[in-house]
Amino acid sequence: MMPQLQEVFVTNGVPQYTFVEPLEFPRLRVNLRTPGRGLIVEGPSGIGKTTAIEQAIADENMTARVTKLSARRKEDIEYISTIQELGVTGLVLIDDFHKLSDDVQSDISNIIKVLADEGDDRLKIIVIGINDSGKRLIQIADDITNRIDIVPLESNPKEKILELLKKGSDILNINLGIYDEIINECNGSFYLAQMLAYEACIKSNIIDTCPEHINLNISSEAVKSTVWRRLDDRFRRKVIKFCEGIRKKKEGRAPYLHILKWLSEEESWVLNVREAARNHSLMRGSVSQVIEKGFLEQLFQENPDLSEQLHYDVTASKLIVEDPQFIFYVRNIPWATFSNDLGFRDIFQDKYDFALSFAGSVRPIAETIFRILSEEELQVFYDKNEQHRIVATDVEDYLHPIYQSEAKFVICIINDDYPKRIWTKFEEKAMAKRVGESIIPILVGDTQSSAFSSLNDIGYLTLRGEAAEQEICEICRTVLKRYHETPQ
């Protein structure tokens, strides 16, 4: 019987006709021949790690000795934890190693060390995980460095993807025509190449090997669109849940949405969230908040279903894609339309939402206002948090544009000291043209509005008594209402 489409371009299981050896395939086979030596295979999901290992095992005639385990299955986790006590033999394949607890990972590393030292040929442990799984294992037990082989299966080169597509085309007796487009779209993933080729055949009504050679006349955009719409039903709810975060603040800077968008732009399928925040000055404050305060970690804890597609390494602040179909989906999201549909303000014209201007004697009030506004996922200029950027620069050159135009609003916290300080005088000069438009004065205690001449004729807020936090919160609510009612 001639091969059928689902047997050629495979979207589940190990491909029989379109298997392509990754560049590191010989290293896998050599390790399998080495008694006791541990093996760690790492790389993005969908890159072909499990398929490559299983093929290497088959080539070494070891298939009958394999026990396959996954950290995603509860019963398997219990089995993994007792491998040593059970006296297991043969090849033990542990998939999704990064999902195991630190204690279990440590136990596995100790077993690998003992097996390597003894050259034991009765048991070999093979670990499969996402990027940096090997590094993680070494961090747990650095003395196993010379007792394991770490084989990274990174993005497959274009010629390997083309080899896969050509194999399938030859067997089906077709010419896909859109080889380059699929290669560019799959970003080195064997799985995505299989999926897109499969869809191209479906749309061309190719479900069996053709008796005569056929040139497909199919648009790559039509294939992408069809696949994306199908995945939209599966992933949209989770993407919305991620983008809303744990607090669902549609009026803020949408830090979670930006994190996911940045991830979609990473070729490696891995985003260092902390580093990305540093590289995006407009979002630095709001994204840093969700990292430092543990909100991103909490999001995964409260929504465990997100871990089916994404893994968040809290220690390294890395967000890692687990599902190749998910990365295809988010890479093709029409972000402007999507963010508008969610009610987010996706385009931010100002570097800061607010800048704080105050004399040092009211710093506790300024600090409280900064904290409250930042927790609303807004970007707030507060000098104390900018010292590392200001140091070794011309301070006036650094501050002038912030108070002149880079902040949407400037909050002036005015007490009797305000008009007497050098820096508040400088800030008054910088924001002079904004008075009556985007300056929000807050008078503290018995301070009179006449204390600062340029603010005489505009509306202001007041903080009475000792400016208790409850009163400051009320002030912030008023400020936020003004902010949200102001057009972008």
Principal-axis shape: elongated
β-strand percent reads 5-15%
User: Uncertain segments of ≥5 residues (pLDDT<50)?
Assistant: none
In the CATH hierarchy, what is the class of the largest domain?
Answer: Alpha Beta
Number of helices: 22
Q: Any idea what the CATH architecture of the largest domain is?
A: 3-Layer(aba) Sandwich
Q: In oligomeric terms, what are we looking at?
A: single chain
**Number of separate structural domains:** 4
Compute the CA-based radius of gyration.
29 Å
Rounded average pLDDT: 85
Tell me the helix content: 40-55%
CATH topology of the largest domain: Rossmann fold
Report the span from N to C terminus: 64 Å
Widest β-sheet, arrangement of strands = 2-3-4-1-5
The count of DSSP E runs of length 2 or more, i.e. the number of strands, is 15
Query: CATH superfamily assignment of the largest domain?
Result: Toll/interleukin-1 receptor homology (TIR) domain
Secondary structure class reads: alpha/beta
Task: Report on the biggest sheet.
Answer: 5 strands, parallel
What do you see in this structure?
This protein is an alpha/beta fold. It has 4 domains: 21-152, 3-Layer(aba) Sandwich (Rossmann fold), CATH 3.40.50.300; 158-218, no CATH class; 231-341; 352-485, Rossmann fold (3-Layer(aba) Sandwich), CATH 3.40.50. The chain contains 22 helices and 15 strands. It has helices at residues 5-8, 25-32, 49-59, 74-81, 83-86, 102-118, 133-140, 158-172, 179-186, 190-203, 220-244, 255-264, 273-279, 284-292, 295-302, 324-331, 335-341, 363-374, 387-390, 395-406, 422-430, 469-485, and strands at residues 38-42, 66-70, 90-95, 123-129, 148-152, 174-175, 214-215, 270-272, 310-313, 318-321, 352-358, 380-381, 407-414, 439-444, 461-463. The strands form 4 sheets. Strands 2-3-4-1-5 form a 5-stranded parallel β-sheet, with helices on both faces. Strands 12-11-13-14-15 form a 5-stranded parallel β-sheet. Strands 8-10-9 form a 3-stranded antiparallel β-sheet. The termini are far apart. The mean pLDDT is 85.
